[in-house]
Structures are given as C-alpha cells and as structure tokens.
From TrEMBL:
Protein name: Bax inhibitor-1/YccA family protein
Keywords: Membrane, Transmembrane, Transmembrane helix
PANTHER family reported for this sequence: CONSERVED TRANSMEMBRANE PROTEIN-RELATED
Pfam families with a match to the protein in the record: BaxI_1
Signal peptide: none
Superkingdom of the organism of origin: Bacteria
UniProt cross-references to InterPro entries, sorted A to Z: BaxI_1-like
Keyword hit for Membrane: yes
Transmembrane segments: 58-76, 82-102, 109-129, 135-154, 166-190, 202-225, 237-254
Amino acid sequence: MRTSSNPAFRNLPTGGGHGNYAGFGQPYQAQPYGGYQGAPPTTGERPITIDDVVTKTAITLGVTLVTGLISAWLVLTNAVSPMALVVPGMIVGLVVSLIIIFKRTPSAPLVLTYAAAEGLFLGGITGVFEAFFPGIAWQAILGTFGVFAAMLVVYKTGAIRVTPRLTKWIIGATVGVLVLMLANLVMGLFGVNLGLRDGSPLAIVFSLVVIGIAAFSFLLDFEAANEMIRSGVPAKWAWWAAFGLMTTLVWLYLEILRLLSYLQSSD
C-alpha cells in the first residue's frame, strides 16, 4: 500500500465501495489504507465521491482566498500591521492542523478554521511582498493554480504513475529539503549563511527544487484521495482530503512567492 508525505493522508479508515479520484481509473484491490485496516462503515453513511472531494476542497480554498484577500488589503492600506495578522494566523493554523492530524477525525469546523487562519497568514505575508513587488501576488496565485492544474492533468492521464518507488523518492526528497531548511534557519541564528534563502543563484535553484517536490507531492495527495474513494470511506472524510490538499497548496504558494521575489530582486 502506498503512503504519502502529507501527514493528513496517513492512517485513514477503510470501508467498502469503489470509485475514482480525478477520473483516473485503476483496478481496485482490497487492501488496508495507510497500514490500518478499519471496519466497513456501519452507520449507514454514504461513501465518499469525487464530487464530495471537489466541493469540500473548493469551499476550503474559497475561505482561504477570501480571508487572504482581506488580510492582504488590510496590510496594503496600512490598516493593520502585517505581524498582527501573520503571527496569529501562523500559530492558529499550526495548532489547528496538529489537532486535525492527531485527532484523525474529519471535522468541517476545524478544517474551515485552519483555512481561515492560513488566509490571514498568507494574506499578511502577501501584502508585504506586494508592497515591495507590485503584481507579485497575482503571479504567485496564478503560478500555484497552474502547477496544481498541470499535476492534476498528469495524474488523470496517467503520464506519471504513482509507484512505490516514486512515493519513496518524493517522501525522501521532502524530508531532505525540510532538513536543509531547518539547518539553514539554525545556522542563520549563529550568523552563518548557507545561501539557501538569500536570493542568490543557489537560493533560486533550491527554491525551484522545492517547488518541484511540492508539485510532485500533489500526485501523492491525489492518489491518497483516490484510495479513500475506492475504499468507500464515509462522505465526511472529504473534509480530510480537502485539508490535505490545502496544506500542499499553502506550501507551494509560499515557495512560488519566494521564488518570484528572488527573480524580481535580481532585475
């Protein structure tokens, strides 16, 4: 059974049923999801469908976009200090995401709270970048959705198959870049610059690598959501899938925003 680098898609329950995510058909084989064999649903709840995943993801993304636009506007108009939005949004988003992950129970209020908090966080940061680099916000948004759409097409057409080897490679690469980011942060506290986040050519290359890894992570997210549909878990788990996809979208957007700032600074 394949796994995912996204903690939101690990150790999910299984049930009976069939289906496909993103319209990409694969033969179904009864297997435990994420290494955990749950009992088929007995509450009479209908199984999750692709429409459930798309709808809940759209709602979650919509909340993030609305709160993000409001947050960015407040920063750009100097109505609120950026840190007054970024810090609370980051803290609330982190705490709520940990609750969702460790609680392992789908909750629409928690997912929407996470989406709103991320909107405040991203909007505050975007407002600061937009003040220095006019137009960068829309470029980052379009870039993020462009990458998402491209990877969805890649997954749907089967151009790249989610194999165990690819899964291990993506997870290993994700862990690797996270370790490098942490090392760069720690060394920076001691005045040592590793050159990964200073806008240098090395930083640009590193950012491109991170964007590539985040893009490929969507393949694992799509496959994980597809497994949920094929396993026939209850429809409420669509909120869990939406949360998992949002975490990757947030990561990708931040990295694209950073890369664009590097490129515009060098002009």
